Amino acid sequence: MNLKNVILYCGIIVMAIACASQKNQPPKLLMEMSRSSCMGVCPVYIMQIYDNGLVQLVGEKNIEQIGTYKAMLTSEELIALKKQFDEIDFFTLEDEYVKRVSDLPTTYISYTLGDQTKRIKDYYGAPEGLKNLENYIQNYLKELKWDSTEEVENE
Q1: What angle do CA 109, 32, 84 make, to 5 degrees?
Q2: How far apart are CA 149 and CA 155, in angstroms?
Q3: pLDDT tens, residue by residue, 58-103
């Protein structure tokens, strides 16, 4: 075997190892949204969506899904979600929207694109585009097929 073939084979092996290691990478968090409680019946939950479409939900109260659940977004739904963030130019929004009012839930929403992550606190006074994005994401609570990830105890 000549040196040229050895280099070629080594290059193929390195590329194969690199491709295999990329497939074994854990999914990366794309966005997270949480809602806090209020004096009324506000839903309290944390929803995380990963770049592979995995959606994890922890429902605390005033929500149909109490406990830990998971669902999947299709690639088309994932693209549509990213488009929602892009359309409101998420990274240029303020870090928080807070006014002196009482008894409202607080929404925290974060989004990661590449190496850039932004987290916004929305208590009151957010622009319409951000409120629409929050509602878009909250609609997943009704639209997705949720599977409980908690084990059922034997009695």
Answers
A1: 70
A2: 18
A3: 999 999 999 999 999 999 999 999 999 999 999 999 999 999 888 8
